């Protein structure tokens, strides 16, 4: 294999002094996507990528598309006899929003009918308390800049919108469907240049009035990177507002009695403030306030109190912290003589649901599940009842919706995904290994019968408390069916073992995450699953940072790397996209101690000339407003310059898509390119 000739990229003599440390940045010019030199370089990179020999691309494209023909279905949201849900048929590019009632099912919103180009996505939806109106949010081209609309459920007529600047906005309806609380950013003209993605506020909006006349409820004078949550109890009496600085694993929380004070000027009472914990509230139909918190309980607990006395000193444990399982969800079923509480857990990332007496919290049973997989979205009827719905998936089972009846104790399939697909025989086993510091870490290994060493993909994320739970993946199954092994490591920084597991992989402890990945690779090699010349690593976003650090720290350990939408320049990451909201996870280069953490592993700054690096594919998206593609552009230029070996460093740029949801066909193309690249450089023969 001969060395690939790379497009020329000038190296500028730019060196910043940060806290006495010289920080070189030779490719800073690539931070400007409008610079003609950047455009010329990107065009040349695209030509180089398209000329790459990826023999398995057609095979993987066809197989992944076939597996995705399972379609999808979402858990229902009930409002009286109406239920709202999403479903994607086998040939559809996007899930469609439906309403069902005594007259059957109707389409409320089909993103493809709205925009035949496939570039419009449904970001979220929220029916009002009666089910007569529904707020939904859509964005175009992957920019995630949600615009909010309201539709009349009976007629399908849009009665409100668009309201812009609603990215990540919750919608909390007041009874009657005439008004709702929501979150909106300030107009760009009202904020300093470069801060247009921040400065959110909570407003009260009345349907049919101009958003310019909305009543400011909360957020004035607070931290610019705050995210806000807002909810209103079923009876409309209680308002709760939460605030968290960026993605911090803690929040401040307030409640207001909307009977004692008006919805336009709620008198907010502090539940918790300046407390290092995450807490959420649910106002029960029985008049009690249910508190879901990790305060003094890293794996979570459920407490009860009265809405009139919401502070922690009044909380009484209902479901105490479990020694091994992480509490993920709960639902109240009160349509029988003895009401119960369903509690969702993940035990080492495997889902389970327990049944408890609502008054005492005593465990009295469990909900039968289809297998060892993941559960999600336990929902109930808001007005009460004896039924619950939840989703279930595992490594070979597409996500389906199940129904639980508390009167009979039975679980049954409610709705399967609409497409029938032939899934390859494969098994998933959870393996425990030890990291560098002796910590026990787990990973899920999916494979078909056979012996190693085999071409293997090791995937990880390790950040923001996000757990890597088992689930159906067309990409995984296509790789395994072709003879490879697919491994998902449950690294520190994630949420698999609770909040402390997250904190053991953030800020000054971020190196633990990289050590966990290296140890996973070494375990797979030592046990004969794979070998260094057959091992690829893959990750996106924070997982892109993970594999970027891994390839610079241990280039000898990996044959190939796929790095999607990554953070890689950890000295300047706060200056772009939503970076400033993540300094609570990584630290800030403005703070000397925190700069030292970032400088110790920042992948872009650890590329060294004369090193033989793994074959590396960077994939970025032009409309990504979370993580700017410049991270991958600069890193690709640095690696291409430094590469001493003959394995290629390639850059895949994609337009009109962003960090999040996309059309199915676009997902298929991306996954096929990734698998074909890793197959070529781990020796997996395809087709």
Automatic annotation (TrEMBL):
Residues of the Peptidase S9 prolyl oligopeptidase catalytic domain: 472-683
Q: List where Basic and acidic residues composition bias occurs.
A: 9-19
Enumerate the catalysed reactions: Hydrolysis of Pro-|-Xaa >> Ala-|-Xaa in oligopeptides
Enzyme Commission number(s) of this protein: 3.4.21.26
The alphabetical list of record keywords is:
Hydrolase, Protease, Serine protease
Write out the ranges of the annotated region (Disordered).
1-34
Q: What class of enzyme is it?
A: hydrolase
Q: Which SUPFAM superfamilies match?
A: alpha/beta-Hydrolases (SSF53474), Peptidase/esterase 'gauge' domain (SSF50993)
InterPro entries attached to this UniProt entry = AB_hydrolase_fold, Pept_S9_AS, Pept_S9A_N, Peptidase_S9_cat, Peptidase_S9A, Prolyl_oligopep/macrocyclase
Domain Peptidase S9A N-terminal, chain residue ranges per copy: 7-416
The record's listing under Pfam families reads:
Peptidase_S9, Peptidase_S9_N
Q: Which PANTHER family match?
A: PROLYL ENDOPEPTIDASE (PTHR42881)
Q: What's the family?
A: Belongs to the peptidase S9A family.
- This protein is called prolyl oligopeptidase
Source organism of this protein record: Microbispora siamensis
